[in-house]
């Protein structure tokens, strides 16, 4: 948090609000818990006329040990059309950010620079059909992806081309029959990853190496 925000919060009249920005392929949603809040060229609203209002925000905490930060954010759409648009599963992996901001109690304008509380990606949406239509966004951080085992990833031509279509660098490479695992322990009995060598550095064997990335 910058010095101006810290100083403002010590004054008798200041408002502390949260700002949310959710960027999808279909829309960018900017919501606040404190009404109309301009920030640079962007404007955050208490109620978006198309997609609704911000429901519940969690207490943001850092992960512990091997855990990473997760957050559950609630959007309350105004109608079924907006509900369907917000709850669309294709928004998975879209960027979502939340800031803590300080507003001047007299002007309602920002003081200092908002403090980033959470930057993450939408994992999946949950829907709640009760007195109101609510969409609960289960969110994780980009760092959380580093903890996934990614067992589908292999040093092989099919996987290589699934990431870089048409790139045939592994199409005719020999020695790729043995699986090399990314971000996961090699299963017992399958041999190790890394390099395999045919004969060491001396004598007549030479080396035939398979690289893992």
Structure notes:
- This protein is mostly beta strands.
- The chain has three helices and ten strands; from the N terminus they run αβββββββαβββα.
- Strands 2-1-8-9-10-7-6-5 form an eight-stranded antiparallel β-sheet.
- Strand 3 (37-39) and strand 4 (42-44) form a beta hairpin.
- The longest helix is centred in the middle third of the chain and has 7 residues, at 80-86.
Overview in brief:
By secondary structure, the chain is mainly beta. It has helices spanning 3-8, 80-86, 157-163, and strands at residues 14-23, 28-32, 37-39, 42-44, 47-48, 52-54, 70-76, 95-104, 110-129, 133-140.
Keywords:
two-stranded antiparallel sheet, eight-stranded antiparallel sheet, disordered C terminus, 213 residues, mainly beta
Compile the SSE list and pairings.
Elements: H1 3-8, E1 14-23, E2 28-32, E3 37-39, E4 42-44, E5 47-48, E6 52-54, E7 70-76, H2 80-86, E8 95-104, E9 110-129, E10 133-140, H3 157-163
Antiparallel strand pairs: 1-2, 1-8, 3-4, 5-6, 6-7, 7-10, 8-9, 9-10
| Terminal CA distance | 39 Å
Q: Name the quaternary structure.
A: single chain
Shape: elongated
In terms of structural class, how would the helical and strand content be classed?
mainly beta
Question: How many β strands by DSSP?
Answer: 10
| Overall pLDDT confidence | 76
Our count of helices gives: 3
Helix content: under 10%
- Which residues sit in consecutive blocks of at least 5 with pLDDT less than 50? 192-213
Biggest sheet descriptor: 8 strands, antiparallel
**Beta content:** 25-35%
* Spatial strand arrangement across the major sheet: 2-1-8-9-10-7-6-5
The ordered H/E elements are HEEEEEEEHEEEH
- Give Rg in angstroms: 25 Å
């Amino acid at each position: 948090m910058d010095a101006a925000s810290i100083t403002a919060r010590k004054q008798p009249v200041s408002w502390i609000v949260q700002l949310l920005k959710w960027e999808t392929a279909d829309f960018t949603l900017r919501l606040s818990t404190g009404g109309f809040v301009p920030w640079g060229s962007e404007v955050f609203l208490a109620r978006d006329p198309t997609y609704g209002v911000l429901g519940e925000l969690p207490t943001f905490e850092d992960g512990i040990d091997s855990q990473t930060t997760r957050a559950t954010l609630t959007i309350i759409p105004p109608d079924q059309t907006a509900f369907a648009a917000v709850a669309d599963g294709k928004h998975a992996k879209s960027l979502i950010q939340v800031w803590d901001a300080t507003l001047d109690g007299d002007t309602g304008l920002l003081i200092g620079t908002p403090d980033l509380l959470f930057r993450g990606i939408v994992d999946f949406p949950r829907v709640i059909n009760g007195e109101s239509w609510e969409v609960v966004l289960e969110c994780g951080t980009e760092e959380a992806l580093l903890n996934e085992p990614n067992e589908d990833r292999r040093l092989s031509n099919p996987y290589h081309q699934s990431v870089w279509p048409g790139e045939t660098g592994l199409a005719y490479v020999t020695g790729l029959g043995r699986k090399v695992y990314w971000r996961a322990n090699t299963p017992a009995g399958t041999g190790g990853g890394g390099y395999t060598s045919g004969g060491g550095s001396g004598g007549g064997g030479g080396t035939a190496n398979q690289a893992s990335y």
